[in-house]
Structures are given as C-alpha cells and as structure tokens.
Amino acid sequence: MQVLQSIRKSNIYLFVIIYLSFFLDNVLLTVVVPIIPDYLFSNQLKTDNSRLGLKSLSPLQEKYEVLENDNGPLGTLLASKAFVQLAFTPFIGYLTETVGCCIPLLLGSCNMLVAAILFAYGNSYGVLVLARALHGSSSAAIAVSGMSILAKNVSQEFRAKLMPLAFGGIALGVLIGYPLGGAAYQFLGKSAPFLLIAFLISISIVLQILYIEDVTNDVIIDEVNCSQFLNFLQDKQIIITTFTICICTSTMAILEPCVPMWLLAYLNPPPSRWQLGAVFIPDSIGYFIGSHFAGLLPIAPWRIAFSALVLAGLSCCALPLAVSIYQLSIPHFGLGLSVGAVDAALVPYLATLVDSKGSNQYGTVYALQQVFVSLAYAFGPLLGGHAVRILGFPWLMRLIGFLNLMFCPLLLELEKDPKVGLLDDDYNTPRSYSTLDNTYTSLDEETY
C-alpha cells in the first residue's frame, strides 16, 4: 500500500494520466474515419432502395451516384466535433485558471466515455452527430487542461523534450485509431472498437479520481487576468504560432472526409473496409516520428515549422498523383511528419512566449491554441467536403498545398527569440514562480 501511495503522489503518475487521456482522445477521434463513410453509405443505399422499391442492377454505378452527395453530410458530421470544441475551449481555458486543471480533465474524460457509448450503439445520423459533438467538449477539456498541467509542472528547459513526449499519446492514438477502426469494423462490427475505447476510458477516469484525492489540498489556483488574455491576442508571435498550427492541422482535417470517398469512388477495384483505415497509417507513423524527434533537434522552433510547412505543401500537391493505395503512402507520410513537427516545435514554444510576458496563464494561451485547432477541424471537413464537389479532389489538394507554402514567410517573425523573465509592471522586479518550480522539479528528475 505504501508503494501504491508513493506512485499515486509522484509526478510520473500524473504524466501517465495525461498521456493516456491524449491517447484515448485521439483513438476516438480517428477510429470513426474509416467506419462512418462506409456506414453512412450502406444506410443511404438501404434507405433509398426501400423508399423506391427497387433493387439496383449495378451496385458500382449506384455507389458513384450516392458518393457525390455524401461528402457534405459526412463533412458536417466530422466537423460537428470541432465546432463544439471551438465553443467550449474558451470556457475550459477560464475554468483551468479558476478551479485548476484536474477537474476539467476529469469532466472531459466522462464526456468522452458517454460519446464512445453513443458511437457504439447509435444507428441514426442524428445520434452519430450528437456523439461526435459530445466528443468535441471532452477534447477541449483534455487538450487545454493537459497542456496546462505540463506547462505549469515542467521547467522551461525541459518543455521542448517532455511536452513532445506527451504528444506520443496523441501520435499513438492516431497511429492505432485508423487501422483499428477499419479492421474491427470489418471483422467485429461497428460497436466493437467503441466499446473497447469506453473500457479504457473508464480505467483513465479511475486513475484521475485517485490522483485528485491526493492533490485536492495542494492545488494552486491562479487569478484570472482578462487584460493578459487581450495581450495574448495582440501579440504577433503568439498569433502567428497558433495560426501556423491551424494551417498545418487543417490539411489533415480536410483529408479525413475526402480521401475515403475519393478512394471508394475512383479506385478500381474499390478498397475494402480495412484498407480505408490502413491508408492513414503512413500519416500516423509520420506524426509519431515528427512529434517525438522534432523537439529534440538543436534547431530553432520557427525553422522546424518552416521546413514542415514546405513539406506539407509539397505532399499535398503530390497526393492526387497517386493511382493506388500504396502510392499514397509517401505523401501521406510527409503530411503526418509535417503536422507532428509543427506541434512538437510550436506547442512548447507557446509556453515560452507566456513566460516572456511574465505570466503563468498557460491555460489561456493553450485555450487560444485549441481555438485555432478547432477552427481547422471545424471548417476543414466542412469546406473540404463541399469544395471537392466544386474543384475536384486533385485541385483541392493543390490549393491546400499552395496555402501552406504561401504562409511560410510569416514564420520569419518568430526568428527573434522572446526574452524570458520580463519585468513586472507593478513591482518592477522579475516575477518568480518558485513555488511551482520547487513543487514540481521532481517531474524532470523522475522522467529523465
């Protein structure tokens, strides 16, 4: 019992909780991608046939006709999560600064459990949209509170190493989610992967409750400063950093509804269900590598982000040239690598920018970052699903690639390193957060 209590009080235990929360959030995010297009398509065919009283003589021709109209509803379903996440993120940012970070993390995990159950047993389009939207509220809480906990508990010199390590949960979730969804859907049915995720979320909730019982009396609540939030919005470097994350993330968000439909409609022979999930494996591997190793490079964050955007732009332009699933692997790997590198380089850099202003409102700046990520996942699938009908998939990918390349020059504004420890206006002395540093220094030592 003494060993168990010492583990519960250690900061490694906290890191495991955050890692597991990120992992499950992204497994649930990606596991639906290979399932929902085929599931909606199958239900659409059954509904149309029963309504008309006809049986198609050509299933392939019928498939082409239906898929032309399915990108819009599918994009709306996938984007519903991001719209709800966009609405909840500012509230979560305020909540983390008033009640601490652990309670929002727990509430987000409970919402995610309900969303997984709805995905497992929901059969109608409305229930699936509700589940996806509920997942958006949980993602807002998990992302903002998780990043804030790490920023507050880790010293600046270790953030560039430890925070990308936490992204390992995101990368692993993305890596597992796509193939798990495709394979489990084909061999076990729609409910199986969501019930497994719900079981793992329940374990995470229990671990969080045990941790909250130990730290209830030690939580440090920060005073919310609205003027500081306005300063963040007016800071050029913070806006460019968050918008860079948005641009790169939107590239992957647009691919989610478009690639499965494009493969089903134009690939001959059409891919099987498990292949619709496997096509995203190179993205996941690329993100896993980029998020783990980009932060370890002795290169300025803006240079890493600059190179990643160039890679993303070139990969987008090359993606429509593929004529088979195997040829898609190279541009997909490049896209995943670029998104992972941008996250690993710029997300810890946001905490450094907060330090440079003499503040510790990390929840506020990560709420702002999540707003931009939510914008990418909200308008990416929604606009992508409709734009592909107007421009066609090849030209849509080329347009996104050009946008990534055109944004690169703005990253030159990040070349000037922020000066950490600016003078506080009220006391004319550098602000000190030694209480936090003394409380959590063991995290760096235990982790490394």
Description:
This protein has 448 residues and is mostly helical. It has helices at residues 2-9, 11-31, 36-52, 59-98, 102-121, 125-153, 156-187, 191-215, 226-234, 236-266, 273-278, 281-293, 301-318, 329-356, 362-391, 393-407, 434-447. Residues 45-70 and 420-448 have low confidence and may be disordered.
Q: Would you summarize the structure shown here?
A:
This protein has 448 residues and is an all-alpha fold. The chain is 79% helix and 0% strand. It is globular.
Q: Order of helices and strands, N to C?
A: HHHHHHHHHHHHHHHHH
Share of residues in strands: under 5%
The low-pLDDT segments are 45-70, 420-448
In DSSP terms, counting alpha (H) and pi (I) runs of 4 or more, how many helices?
17
Specify the structural class.
mainly alpha
Radius of gyration from CA coordinates: 22 Å
- Overall shape: it is globular
Query: Level of helix content?
Result: over 70%
* Largest sheet data: none
